[in-house]
Amino acid sequence: MPNMKQIADMAGVSLGTVSHVLNDSARVREPLRRRVLEAVEALGYQPSQLARGLRRDKTNMFGMVIPDVTNPFFPAVVRGAEDTAFSNGYRLVLCNTDNDHAKELAHLNELRTYLPSGLIVIPSSFSDLTVQAERYRRAGTAVVCVDRLPKRWNGDSVTVANEEGAYAATRHLVHVGHRRLAAIVGPLHLTNSQERLAGFRRALSEAKLPIAPEYIQETTFDRSGGHAKARLILKMLPRPTAIFAGNDMIALGVIQAIRELGLHCPADVSVMGFDDLDFAELTSPSLSSVSQSGYQLGATAARILLDRMAGDDGPPKQLVLETQLKIRESVAAPAAGSIDESKRSRGKAGGGR
Fold first, then answer.
1. Are 184 and 246 in contact (CB under 8 A)?
2. Which residues contact 20 (CB under 8 A, 6 or more apart)?
3. How far apart are CA 241 and CA 246, in angstroms?
4. What confidence tens digit (pLDDT) does each residue in 153-179 have?
5. Which ranges in the chain belong to alpha helices (H)?
6. 19-57: per-residue pLDDT in tens?
């Protein structure tokens, strides 16, 4: 590969002049600057970002660690972060943890050797990343946690109003007439799952509706998890007339289970999701969901990093973005007579099974 000495020889200048031009570290007379740039172009020279980072203690790179690259919610978060980074002269390096905390730690330990200017983490679990974050901070790298928060996290973060979104969704289900509601939520060691379940419970408590323990199921944030738990819930007597799903992927599995059991959505069971992914409007029926912007989560996190690198040393920024309820075809009032039918079923079956 061409190097700076070859550029200096071709341009007829000193190595120092080449360095000043490439690093914009000192004023160089325009004729000399043009000769250096022409030599760079002719030789196809590409500066080593790692070498620059070693000289400056930082590269123009952001690291980003996400839990599941196949989950359609996370690419939007990555895109928001990458667009913001790129437009400000930074590049994004992405690592996927597969929701494995050991793999997450391996990525975090190795990324630090690349001297990133900033780090965005969507934690794999409700784990303590304080030690790793402190190592980055001591090295001058800003750290932002997004979507989920680790234990005892007191640094910068960007999340959404999970509890309020779930509360609004459940309250709408109650408002249209549902009295037997179930919830299939994501892993409860994750803060976003905990908050969404809290919103579901708060809405039912406010409406003075009982919450049957078996009507609350925990699963993975994917379609297969939603499908398995929905098949379990839909065979209970009395059957719930509405299911709140912890995310849209779980909701897809719920709708699949409804069809397999010969039921119809929303005639027999209403379904509410959370995320409002692009496919929500394309499902049949179209999916009602709590809308959150993954793109804004990522973009906001990247802007916090840029502010920190620009000298903002103020207290931690813990931003909470608003959600919005999107009502579509998957939610309707419960069928007439469903309450009477459920009472008869309870008398025959003696409760849930």
1. yes
2. 26, 27, 28
3. 17
4. 889 999 999 999 999 999 999 999 999
5. 4-11, 15-23, 30-43, 49-56, 74-87, 101-111, 130-138, 162-175, 191-206, 223-234, 248-260, 294-309, 338-349
6. 788 766 678 888 888 898 888 888 877 665 545 544 455
